[in-house]
Amino acid sequence: MEQVTEEYAPPTVALAGRPNVGKSTLFNRLLHKRRAITGPKPGLTRDPVAEYTFIAGKQVRLIDTGGFNLETGKSTPLDSLVVERTLRTIESADVIVLILAAGEVTPEDEEFIRILRPLRDKLLIAVNKTEGGRLLAEAWNTLRFGFEKIYPISAEHGDNVAELASAIVANLEAAGAYSAERRGGQGAETENTIRLSIVGKPNTGKSTLSNRLRADSASIVSGIPGTTRDVISGRFLWKDRNFVVLDTAGIRRKARVNENIEYYSVNRTIKTLDEADIAVLLIDAPEGFSTQDKKIAALACEKGCGLIFALNKWDAMPDTKNAFNAARDSIHYSFGQMKYAPVIPLSAKDGAGVGALLQTAVKMFEQLNRVTETSKFNDFLRCAQSENPPPQGPLTRFKIKYGVQVSANPVVFRLFVSRPDAFTSAYRSFLCNKIRKDLSYGMIPVTLEISPSRKERR
Question: How confident is the model at residue 219 (pLDDT cuts 50, 70, 90)?
């Protein structure tokens, strides 16, 4: 595929520490919104979760890292992946905030402190769970590890978090993170940025595709279903176009969602469809699509997202003539109301087809943001009704007075008609298909709103 490059980002602030010290709570506090999954169960955060935000008036890329689990005999292969990713994220950060829990310094904390000593110049120590002044003596006792300063805070209640935020920015400024040299060429998300949400069932390759698009390994990839819990976002440039990619948790059938954590993850995944321009529905090509894929596709279209069916692991399919045509026809037949959605074969692992996916996304984004002039749309309506007149039965007769496009991305047209209750679903489908064909919206969902004409409203 063509080269994908990550655009320049603001300085990075990484929150680090063992499980259950309050990293995700502090992350949400600094963002002023609930972004990371929090709860009493250790190890909820696995992948580094990153967000662009402002701290004390300065833009930063804030990262919530996975919990650092080193307990002998209790760690799993997935824990090792989390630790490896956490260390990699920490080393590349401009500022590291190590979070300890007041009165609960453990051997894992001490090992973390040892590992971070070579990075002391960019290290800040936050001692959490000191709300209302509780456990302050225990918090100050952590100075025995050789720290020059600590910041007792309560991530849950906000105590002294403003002081920590000021220290973060002061440390960044002292390190020259906002110098002219660092800021040169900085790219920012604009209204032309294309936001892709990668959705699908567990283990279809979503994180592998996300990592390839970002040209990094921010999302942990493993064969364990449900590895991704949070939505992992990242930016990249492709052919001078800005993209944001959202790697989401796999959506299983409701009957199989048996943990509160997974329920929250699935809800977060669904919410990304409100933020995305285009949903890339990743389907395991050798396994084929399922009823769950149909539900995900319908949800994306309901929210007005563009939809691309991406047949991943296509390299594992038999190399036979017309294999792709057969797969595409099968999808279009089974997803009857979404025949307009493109189907792309690809391999997230080796990159085959990813360029075609992005080129399709660019064309789709242009259609999502296309605006049709009112005069042109009404000329279209007259031609469409001449070609296929509305029903004329006594109970189904109605007249379309005029129409207007009321929004782009999602694309919504409003028709003002006599007797809106008589407007049939069949005629609605005819007009939607006709709009896609004649007005160059051929790859995206189109919504028709039916309102009474002025005379009918009196």
Answer: very low
The enclosing H or E element of 455 equals helix 454-457
If pLDDT is split at 50, 70 and 90, which confidence band does 296 have? confident
pLDDT tens digits for range 320-365? 888 999 999 999 998 888 999 999 999 999 999 999 999 999 999 9
Structure tokens at 147: 């720290």
Give the separation between CA 328 and CA 280, rounded to whole angstroms. 15
- Could you confirm whether domain 12-183 is CATH 3.30.2420.10? no
Beta bridge pairs of residue 83: none
Q: Where in the chain is the domain with CATH 3.30.300.20?
A: 374-457
DSSP 51: E
Give CA–CA dist 21/40, Å, rounded: 10
How many angstroms separate the Cα of 285 from the Cα of each of 81, 281, 349, 444?
A: 27, 12, 13, 23
Closest CA to 257 of 201, 341, 192, 189: 201
What contacts 210, CB < 8 A, 6 or more positions away?
198, 218, 219, 232, 234, 245, 247
Pairing of strands 447-452, 412-417: parallel
* pTM given for the model: 0.65
- Cα angle value 310/316/317 (rounded, 5°): 75
Pairing mode, strands 447-452 and 58-64: unpaired
pLDDT of residue 345: 96
d(CA 437, CA 433): 6
Distance CA 97, CA 165 (A): 10
Q: For 175-231, list the strands marked E by DSSP.
A: 194-199
Tokens standing for residue 49: 């979760």
The fold of the 194-368 domain, in CATH, is Rossmann fold (3.40.50)
pLDDT: which is higher, 230 or 287: 287
Across 115-124, 170-179, 315-324, 379-388, the highest mean pLDDT is recorded for: 379-388
Q: Which residues contact 107 (CB under 8 A, 6 or more apart)?
A: 70
The per-residue pLDDT for 262 is: 40
How far apart CA 134 and CA 292 sit, in angstroms, is 49
Question: 374-457 maps to which CATH number?
Answer: 3.30.300.20
Residues of each domain in the chain carrying CATH 3.40.50.300:
12-183, 194-368
Other C-beta atoms closer than 10 Å to the C-beta of 146 total 9
